[in-house]
């Protein structure tokens, strides 16, 4: 079940080539400052000049700088790539129809004229025949830019459906069916859904996602038959191991950096589950992922995969 409490960045391989100006780091920066600049670049794909400027303004604190960095340009780029194939009309009639539909769906119109609250949202999702406990719920929530689970804003509703030309329940159901049919091979849409799930699942006023909720979302996102990133193989139950490790060793809320990097880590594991690509010394994975890989090596030799499917991670 989805938790009830209220897109991927590629991990850059920095091959420092002396003939490329963008790869040169000014001598004025200290070694520790260069390290956090590289980490910021790896996470955000920003250029080094931008990274240095933002980090400097936030006292070289990576977490503070990441919170301040606006990823909207990347999100808009990915969203455009997905929506550009649509020939949906974006006109006043379409938006007027959606405004009327939104008004009818509101459950507390006097107190919240521009928001559909939990009861109205759940009733609407049922009209759309959306699985409330599955990835389909997260897909629609991303499309409508829902700020939290069970809440739909007028702006998100109208903008989301107008971009795909769906101003009736019938058209909206058809669009959802089309998205879900293509999702297993659509990494762009999955990345948008994955990234949006982080703010969607956070409790009010919180910067991080509760571990309990994060693990539930990971099970949905990485286990669904519709997911293009099913984080498990016949020899290694990656997702089960990952969740078991976090619950036993991490025991903390999941911040945005760890959330984003988990998707990249899962994708890399599926490309090469022997982890020949792993290089903890020259990369900037979150420390908890470093610890998890060490535990995997203890359980399973680096040059071999697990002998038995479904082995449990041992924490004795």
UniProtKB/TrEMBL annotation:
Alphabetized UniProt keyword annotations: Ubl conjugation pathway
Single biological process term from Gene Ontology: protein neddylation
Name of this chain's protein: Defective in cullin neddylation protein
CDD domains per record: UBA_TAP-C_like
Species: Pseudovirgaria hyperparasitica
Domain of life: Eukaryota
InterPro entries listed in its UniProt record: DCN-prot, DCN1-like_PONY, PONY_dom, UBA-like_sf
Stated role: Neddylation of cullins play an essential role in the regulation of SCF-type complexes activity.
One Gene Ontology molecular-function label: ubiquitin-like protein binding
Ranges of residues in domain DCUN1: 93-297
Database matches in Pfam families: Cullin_binding, UBA_4
């Amino acid at each position: 079940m989805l938790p009830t409490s209220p897109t991927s960045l590629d991990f850059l391989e920095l091959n420092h080539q002396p003939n490329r100006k963008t790869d040169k780091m000014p001598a004025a920066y200290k070694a520790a400052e260069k390290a956090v600049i590289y980490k910021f670049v790896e996470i955000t794909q920003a250029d080094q000049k931008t990274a240095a400027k933002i980090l400097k303004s936030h006292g070289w604190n990576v977490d503070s700088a990441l919170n301040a960095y606006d990823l909207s340009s990347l999100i808009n780029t990915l969203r455009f790539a997905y929506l550009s194939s649509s020939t949906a009309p974006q006109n006043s009639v379409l938006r007027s129809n959606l405004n009327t539909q939104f008004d009818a769906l509101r459950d507390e119109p006097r107190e919240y004229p521009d928001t559909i609250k939990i009861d109205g949202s759940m009733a609407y999702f049922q009209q759309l025949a959306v699985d409330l406990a599955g990835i389909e719920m997260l897909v629609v929530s991303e499309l409508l830019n829902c700020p939290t689970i069970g809440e739909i804003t007028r702006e998100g509703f109208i903008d989301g459906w107008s971009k795909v030309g769906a101003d009736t329940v019938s058209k909206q159901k058809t669009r959802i069916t089309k998205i879900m049919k293509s999702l297993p091979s659509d990494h762009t849409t999955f990345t948008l859904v994955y990234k949006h799930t982080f703010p969607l699942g956070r409790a009010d006023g919180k910067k991080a996602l509760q571990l309990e909720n994060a693990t539930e979302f990971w099970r949905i996102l990485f286990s669904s038959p519709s997911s293009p990133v099913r984080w498990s193989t016949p020899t290694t139950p990656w997702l089960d191991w990952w969740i078991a490790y976090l619950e036993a060793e991490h025991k903390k809320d999941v911040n945005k950096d760890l959330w984003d990097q988990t998707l990249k880590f899962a994708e890399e594991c599926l490309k090469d589950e022997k982890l020949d690509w792993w290089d903890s010394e020259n990369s900037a994975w979150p420390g908890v992922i470093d610890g998890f890989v060490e535990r995997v090596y203890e359980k399973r030799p680096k040059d071999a995969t697990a002998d038995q499917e479904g082995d449990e991670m041992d924490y004795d």
